[in-house]
Amino acid sequence: MIIGCTGNYRKEEYYSILQQVHKILGNEKIEFLISSDLEKNTDFNIPGDYKIMEFSELIEKCDILFAIGGDGTILSTVRRLENNMIPIMGIHIGGLGFLSECTENNLTESIESILKNDYMVTQRMLLEVQLTPNNDKQKILWALNDIVVDHGPSARLLKAEVHVSNHYLNTFEGDGVIISTPTGSTAYSLSAGGPIIYPSMDSITVTPICPHSLSARPIVLRSVETITMSFPEPYDGISLAVDGQIKVRIDDQTQIQITKASHSAQIISLPGNGYFKTLRTKMGWLGKVR
Question: In this predicted structure, what is the pLDDT of residue 96?
């Protein structure tokens, strides 16, 4: 088995966890490859026994990828993998994350489960967004959580006309629209009033952001649908965000098409954990509330 590792090199805790992982795998004689991202931190003296490799080469060689950081680190790692999906185990800096069940507190036990093949790999659907501006230079991006179209720096209401597989759905007037996966249902969509959806389901949720009409409500669609979005009125400064990490400025002439991606993310689930346990912890569900 070959294990690769990437992570948020901007966080100090990343380096201490990385050293622990390196020691544990070294004792087990497991080949451990570390992404060269950490070389961007010029203040860090890389130990001589670290095997450093460019991310694109690393993912071609490793069987499993560790991602040290927060849930945002997993989101960015999934996008960097593009079509070269391999199982990812998130090692969360701090408390438990929605996408990572391993923390510094259970690091040894989690790695032991990996080495014993005592884990499951859950498939998480991705969204593919195709942006076609007036110049026809099409851009394709992938999202594990969501694609958000909003009013950008403007304070004006944005009118977004949404079609589902060539059928008119609605013209949402408000701060914008969130198109989310089941994984992303517990992110921005939840804050905007969207439903919690079990992550292994195949569905796409359309959630309006602060709609001007009280009748505008989220809707859950089949994953086979094609969602297109257009803007019936001139508008300057529209913003499209992918997983809250990549922002693209678009105009009212840009064509937006969103579909289920042909590939999916592979997220490792460890024994003794589970989605409902994570959900209860993150949501603060304590049982009966009087």
Answer: 67
